[in-house]
Each structure stands twice: as structure tokens, then as C-alpha cells.
Design a protein that fits this description.
It is a single chain. Helices cover 19% and strands 30% of the residues. With 326 residues, it is α+β, with helices and mostly antiparallel strands. A seven-stranded mixed β-sheet has the order 4-3-11-12-7-9-8. A four-stranded mixed β-sheet has the order 13-14-15-17. The N terminus and C terminus are likely disordered. The chain contains seven helices and 18 strands. The protein has one domain. It starts with a strand and ends with a strand. The protein is globular. Decapping enzyme for NAD-capped RNAs: specifically hydrolyzes the nicotinamide adenine dinucleotide (NAD) cap from a subset of RNAs by removing the entire NAD moiety from the 5'-end of an NAD-capped RNA. One of its GO terms (biological process) is NAD-cap decapping. Its EC number is 3.6.1.-.
């Protein structure tokens, strides 16, 4: 343990970790979040209409520039408002439909123990289940990196416990309906196609409600995390027909799309304050790559998009986790 004193803050260093330690699956640190696996895919056209009828999108790097993100704005369909109780709708649907008893992991562990004849079940820590969203988890994961209060960590979460299951959600909701609020949906529209052999169809209205979501599962210590996250495109030269085969889906190479203003551009486009959040979001959504477009004040992308592997996003070689105390 060591302490650092400044004029304004006092910190206690809990531990020093090298980046390679965080990516070592064989000897993970105590708080390690296991690599997420996709358990199911859903399409949520409406909060009340969630279906397994999923159409995956395939990444196609734009061929022509400039790209006018304002095109078709008058027909843009913004996402329907989701009430608080609907935030975990996709996760709850998965829990009800899956054959696995995900809400009682200890029951399945005890059954397996009785079959093998072992009497160690009572010595095993009881597992706890958390149902959540990627938005909540990524903001929580940001905290050790951004201890100082700012707009980036000014968020509200809602948590409730029912029958021993913890439900946690991110309460943020963007009411924006301006052109700027439509840009990301349009950018996805020009980068993602219904078929890996065809160019994206960009002459139809963009519908922000037509998104594919994955249900992911990960663990940290004695907690089983089951959460939903939007799934981006797939980098593939062949079409995926069986969207119910999770073994094959988990082998896919997923990519996220992001936008930055040209005024925020640096020599390395990924050397940006948002990159940390992108990195965490990508990890939680099992994404391998990120595609970034630079938009100017007119909402136009004039330069070629930049695609980079998530693992190559600049990282600090030594990560120091600090806990502020009074």
C-alpha cells in the first residue's frame, strides 16, 4: 500500500497492474471479468415486440466520399421511447425462454455435485445473478479511470432486488430529434449491408428501432452477469444463416461503428477520450473491430473511415487503480 497526497485530493493505491495481466485468461486478477459469450440474439422493433427473427448486418467499408449524413433526415425514424420497466425487456425474455436455469446457478451446481458424489458443494461460494445492460456495466468499469467528477461519469442507475436476483439498469434516455442525433444511425446505414456480397441499401428511411441485440453472459467473482447489448455488424465473406447456433455466432468477428467531429481529430484517431469507453463497450459486446468516421460541422464525412482492431486501441502500459478517500 502507498499513499499519494496532493493539494486537493488524497488517494490510496490499491494495486498496480500491468496491461498484460488484464488480458491473461490463465491467471486472471481477483476482479477479472471473464470474456463474454453470446447466449441469444433478438430483434427489438418495439419495446413490446421482441423477437428471435434476426437479420444480421455485414460490414462494407464505404467506397465513395463524401458521405452526407443529412441525406434522408426528413424520413428518419427515431427510436421509440422506452420506459424504465422495459429497459431489461430483452434480458427478461431470454430468462423466460432459455432452457438453462440461469436464475438458480447454485441449484445446477448442487445437482452436478450430487451426481459426481462430491461433498464440497457447501464449501463453494453461492453464486449471485445480476440482470443488466451494457450501458450500466461500461459506466461502472469507467469509474477507476475517471475518479474526478465530470460529465462522463454523471449518470444515474436504478437497482432493485427481487427473489434474490439483482436488476440494474442505466436510466439515461436521449430525447434528441435533431439532425445530429440521426447521424449515427445514418452512418450505420452506409456501413452495414444485409448481405456480404451486396452494397448497403441507403435509399430507404433509416429506422433506429431496427437493431439487433445480443444477450451476453460473463462472470466476476461469485456474480453471474446476464446483460443485453446492441450488436454491430459482422466482418465476413459469407452469410450466416443459422442465427440460433450460438457456437457459430460466437465465432463471428463483430465490428462497432463510431463517429467523431473533425475538430476532435488528432494524429491518431483512437487517441481520444472516448476511446476508453469504446474499448469497454467493445469488450462487453464481444466486438473485435471499431470503424470510425470523421464528420464535419455540416454533417459530412469527407475522409476515408478508419478501421482498427479493438486490441490495438492505445492503452496505458501500467494501470494504477486508485480509491479516493477523505
Amino acid at each position: 500500500m502507498a499513499a499519494k497526497h496532493t493539494d486537493r485530493d488524497v488517494y490510496k493505491i490499491l494495486m498496480n497492474l500491468e496491461y498484460k495481466e488484464l488480458t491473461n485468461d490463465r491467471h486472471p486478477p481477483a476482479f477479472y471479468l471473464t470474456r463474454p459469450e453470446i447466449c441469444a440474439l433478438y430483434s427489438a422493433v418495439d419495446p413490446e415486440f421482441i423477437t428471435r427473427d434476426v437479420k444480421l448486418k455485414y460490414f462494407k467499408s464505404p467506397k465513395s466520399y463524401p458521405i452526407d449524413l443529412n441525406e434522408g433526415f426528413h424520413q428518419h425514424i427515431f427510436q421509440n421511447r422506452i420506459s424504465n420497466y422495459q429497459m431489461l425487456g430483452k434480458v427478461q425474455k431470454f430468462v423466460l425462454e432459455t432452457e438453462e436455469n440461469v436464475l438458480q446457478p447454485n441449484a445446477s451446481a448442487n445437482t452436478q455435485t450430487s451426481i459426481t458424489g462430491s461433498d464440497r458443494a457447501q464449501d463453494m461460494p453461492k453464486r449471485k445473478v445480476v440482470l443488466s445492460q451494457r450501458g450500466f456495466l461500461s459506466h461502472i468499469m469507467l469509474i477507476p479511470y475517471r475518479l474526478k467528477a465530470s460529465e462522463y461519469n454523471n449518470v444515474t442507475f436504478y437497482a432493485t432486488r427481487y427473489c434474490g436476483i439483482l436488476h440494474i439498469m442505466h436510466m439515461g434516455w436521449d430525447e434528441g430529434r435533431t439532425k445530429n442525433d440521426s447521424y449515427h444511425g445514418k452512418f450505420m446505414d452506409v456501413c452495414l449491408s444485409d448481405d456480404p456480397d451486396l452494397d448497403p441499401i441507403t435509399n430507404v428511411p433509416v429506422n433506429d428501432n431496427e437493431r439487433v441485440y445480443g444477450i451476453f453472459k460473463s462472470t466476476i467473482k461469485e456474480y453471474d452477469l446476464i446483460y443485453s447489448a446492441e450488436v454491430g455488424g459482422i466482418i465476413s465473406d459469407h452469410k450466416i444463416y443459422d442465427v440460433y447456433n450460438m457456437d457459430e455466432i460466437n465465432k463471428c468477428r463483430f465490428i462497432n461503428t463510431k463517429l467523431l467531429w473533425t475538430s476532435q481529430h488528432t494524429e491518431n484517431i483512437f487517441n481520444h477520450s472516448k476511446s476508453l469507453h469504446w474499448w469497454l463497450q467493445a469488450y462487453l459486446a464481444k466486438s473485435n473491430d471499431i470503424c470510425v468516421g470523421l464528420k464535419d460541422t455540416d454533417g459530412v464525412i469527407r475522409n476515408e473511415v478508419v478501421v482498427n482492431q479493438v486490441k490495438n486501441i492505445p492503452q496505458v502500459s501500467i494501470i494504477t487503480l486508485k480509491l479516493k478517500f477523505n
